[in-house]
UniProtKB/TrEMBL annotation:
This is Uncharacterized protein. It comes from marine sediment metagenome.
Amino acid sequence: DKSGVRLSDSYIEERDRILNDLEAQIARAEEVPWALRGLYRVGLSIAKIIVPPILGMFASTAKDVKEGIDAVTTGEALKIEIKRDDDWWMPVLKQFGFPDSTVKAIASIMPEIQTGPVMLRPLPGILMMVGLLGRLGAIVSGEPAKDLMRRYHPNVPSPGEILRTSFIDPSRHEAVVKALQQGGYTADDIELMYVANYALYSEEHIRALYFRGALTEEQANNRLSEQGYTSTRIEELKQGWKVIPGIQDLVMMQAKEAFEPALISKYGLGAEEPTDIYEWTRKLGLSDEW
């Protein structure tokens, strides 16, 4: 045997029977649905590879059990003749394409593993094979898995990904609703999501529109309530809307009144208000007084 384990005739017959059965199943792969055909063939082909090593591991365990039973009985040998070479792991590891450095590293610890509890001795090999087959399966099943998803379980876009499509291109609204329904959303759910995704004015835009006369005070309050502000907080917020001149302007005005009263009086700077600009300063939130 390639694994280095000498098996009895009964083991060889059982192994050959299993391999022949796998060959027959591979030949019938055309009867399997197309989407699963690739996975079916890959699984059977991998099974053909791992059957001999697994039988070898069980044979190795059987030898240990045999020796233990012989030690506590009259010495009559079991009727199965099995002999395991100490380096039987080497060809098994190489068969799966492990590099020489990995093979040597694993083989170096095998003597300690083989002197451990009988039932744990095959465990390292089983774990390595399971890990290797898992990686191989993930690779070879990629395309069939994608085909199955496309056929039977296509991904549905999330609401956040497609809701705005209706606002950008209203002609596609029905397509968006259909996609959301495929995701399990009811008509009421979809309506609520649309309401929640309507674009709202920012607080700064509401303030600007209010001072420019585009919104009445009641309308401005409604827009702020859409932002989540309560009536109390709306009134508090609006206290900060009115513009107060900057500190530099305030200091300059105070300084001129204190140090240049003669010039102010001579040129009549305080006698006439610049009412022609009031229309624009009001729209910026600056009071007539300022």
